[in-house]
Write a structure and sequence with these properties.
With about 200 residues, the chain is α+β, with helices and mostly antiparallel strands. The protein contains 5 helices and 7 strands.
Length: about 200
Amino acid sequence: MYEERRYSFLGFHGTAESCAKAIDESRHFEFGEPRDDHWLGQGAYFYKDDEEQAIIWAKNKVKNHSNFKGETPYIIEVILESNESNFLNLDSRQGLRYLKEFLNFLKTKGVKIEASSYENIPAKIRCFVLSLLPDDIWMIQRTFHVPSYFDTDELFAAMELTLVGTQICVRNNEVIKGNSMKVKKLLDPIKRKPGGKPRFFG
């Protein structure tokens, strides 16, 4: 008998103080106002296993969004768990194959999707398509390139090494493991974790 695989990993959500306190009080993520350019469709977003990128996102949100000026950045850490059937991993062949089959299904239903309708902007096309996915897809994963100073390093470029971030779009709060939520106020600059400093070999 086939036993369905189960996935579990840490997710980090960067946000502003007022949002963090509301989430902490309700122990629930609201998905906010729909946008046409969410990277993976409508939902709550987390960085997979990467707290530092969530910290940078939280700082930028407070700095650049007029609604949150003057607020303190916060990080919310959760454990995300999902059965294979509820998890669409767009970093895998299986996930991309599922999406291709879903798009073919939409065609049979008369849904025509043209890139030119969305100004050929990848985020807008993805947002529209992924927002059409069935409700039983609770979580979507995709890894994207993140612009950084590594891009200007000649040797890194020669090795084709750039910074990436794996984003998780949560479409159903059921994937958040009960009592795993930790809400953390960000006061200090980013510090390397123990063992995270560079090591040099002679």
